[in-house]
Design brief:
Strand order of the largest sheet: 1-2-5
Helix content: 25-40%
Largest sheet: 3 strands, antiparallel
Distance between the termini: 19 Å
Radius of gyration: 19 Å
Number of helices: 5
Order of helices and strands: EEEEEHEHEHHH
Shape: globular
């Protein structure tokens, strides 16, 4: 699974209002989020296993991560390596548009074609469902530990990615992953 983490990640602030001030425009502070820097990371987990953490590469100046980049960097990369090993594996992908589960005229079925080419067996999963997908809980822990390391959130992208790697390698244990996988009845 993948996650996007902003490098200006801050602790949540509480907003206190008096009764009746909820919808008053003079009590609402509007925010503008353009220009935030972020890092997109991908990992794979299973019971007793966690991969190294991969950071998506943005070769183009366009924002976002496309299905073509997902197919090239993830499906043909670490996922292909897993499915080349002997054993019964299946991949859990949520319904993110990047995963390209539905063939359309725009995506030309690129991700589904690569899954067939690389023998990747994938099942559908509800998007952003922390109660169902154990990795969502792991991402939550990782982001909280990032906030604890630097509450002001003034990271450089290099320091930010080093901190993510450090937390993933040294603070997210196999036992933690197993505990969340064990919450799944089947």
């Amino acid at each position: 699974n993948e996650t996007i983490t902003r490098i200006d990640l801050l602790r949540r602030r509480k907003l206190l209002r008096r009764r009746g001030e909820r919808k008053r425009l003079d009590c609402i502070q509007f925010t503008f989020h353009s220009g935030h820097k972020s890092s997109m990371a991908w990992v794979e987990i299973s019971y007793g296993y966690k991969s190294k953490i991969y950071f998506y590469l943005y070769e183009e100046k366009r924002k976002g991560f496309t299905q073509k980049k997902y197919a090239d960097q993830i499906l043909r990369g670490p996922l292909k390596e897993i499915f080349e090993q002997p054993g019964n594996f299946f991949c859990v992908e949520d319904n993110s548009k990047v995963h390209g589960k539905t063939d359309t005229r725009q995506n030309h079925g690129i991700c589904n074609a690569v899954r067939l080419e690389c023998h990747i067996y994938s099942i559908d999963w509800p998007p952003c469902s922390p109660n169902f997908n154990p990795i969502e809980n792991i991402w939550k822990i990782l982001k909280q530990r990032l906030r604890n390391r630097n509450p002001q959130g003034n990271w450089t992208i290099e320091d930010f990615e080093k901190a993510i790697i450090n937390i993933w390698d040294n603070e997210i244990s196999i036992e933690t992953i197993n505990r969340f996988v064990d919450t799944m009845p089947q």
